[in-house]
Amino acid sequence: MLGASGGIGGEVARQLRDAGWQVRTLKRDLAAGTEYRDGIHWRRGDAMNRHDVLEVARGCQVIVHAVNPPGYRHWAQRVLPMADNTIAAAIAERATIVLPGTVYNYGPDAFPEPNEDAPQHPQTRKGRIRVLLEQRLREATAHGARVIVLRAGDFFGPRAGNNWFSQGLVRPGRPLRKILQPGKPGVGHQWAYLPDVARTMVRLIEQRAGLAPFASFHLAGHWDADGTAMTGAICRVARRHGLDPAIAAFPWWLTTLAAPFVPTLRELREMRYLWTRPVRMDASRLAQFLGEEPHTPLDQAVEATLAGLGCL
C-alpha cells in the first residue's frame, strides 16, 4: 500500500485490514524503522525510492497506488517516478496494481458522459500526466503485472486529503458559517464518498481473478444534477446541529490573483473547467460487474464528513 497516510489510501488500507488482508505500507517520517499500529504494518520509506517500494511490496499480491504529491503540487516531478517504482514492484511480484483514477484524463471530446473506453485527450497538465501514468500501467500488463483502475468524481469524506470539499467548500476545524459553491447553479457535478470508493476497491480486489489484465471502471457516486444538491445537504446537516451557514459563490477571481504566490490555488484553478460544464462518468460497467456499487445516502455521508473535518 502506497499512500496510506492520505485520504483514499488510508480508507482502503483500513477496509482491507477489516476484510482480513495483511496490509503493509510506507511512511516517510516514521520514527522507528517499522511499526505495527491499528492492525497495519508501517515501514519507513519513500514512494520516490525504488528500493523502498520493492522491499515493502515483497511477497504482496496487490499494490494499492494511492500516493499523490500533497497540495496538487510537484506532479511533473513526482507522479510518474512514483508510478514507475510501483510498476517495477508489481512486475517483480506479479502483483495487481490498484489505482484511484481521476476524471482529469478526459477532455471536451469525451464529455458529458464518458465511459471507460472514451478517448483521453485532456487539456490540462495534470490530465496529461494521468494519461501517461495509465499508459505505463497498461504497458506493464505485458510484463506480468495486472491493473485495476477505479475512476471517481471529487472525493469527500471524514478523513479526505486533497479535495474540493475540504479545500473549497468549507473551512475545516471551525463551526460551519459559510459554504462556498464553485459551480453555477444548473451545472451538474459528480462526487464520490471515500468509504464507498474504498469498499468498491476492496470488492474489485477480491474479484480480480475474473478481470482482464487491465481493467478500468467508473464509480457513479453521488451525482449533483443541478450543482446545488451538495450545498443543500451541507445546509441541512448543519441546521440539525444548530448552525445556519450562508452560501456564497467561490471567489475564482481570488485564485487568479493569488495563483502566482499560492501553488495550491494555482492547481485548483487549472481544474475550473470541471465546474463550468456537467461531466458525469458512465458507471454501467461497474454496476454490471458488481451488481450494485456501495452507496451511502448523501446526508449521512455529508454529516460524517463535516464531523470528521471539525465543522459541526
Automatic annotation (TrEMBL):
InterPro entries in the cross-refs: Epimerase_deHydtase, NAD(P)-bd_dom_sf, NAD(P)-dependent_oxidoreduct
Residues annotated as domain NAD-dependent epimerase/dehydratase: 2-208
Cellular component, GO annotation: cytoplasm
UniProt GO molecular function: aldehyde dehydrogenase (NAD+) activity
A Pfam family of this chain: Epimerase
Highest rank taxon of the organism: Bacteria
Gene3D superfamilies: NAD(P)-binding Rossmann-like Domain
Name listed for the protein in its UniProt record: NAD-dependent epimerase/dehydratase domain-containing protein
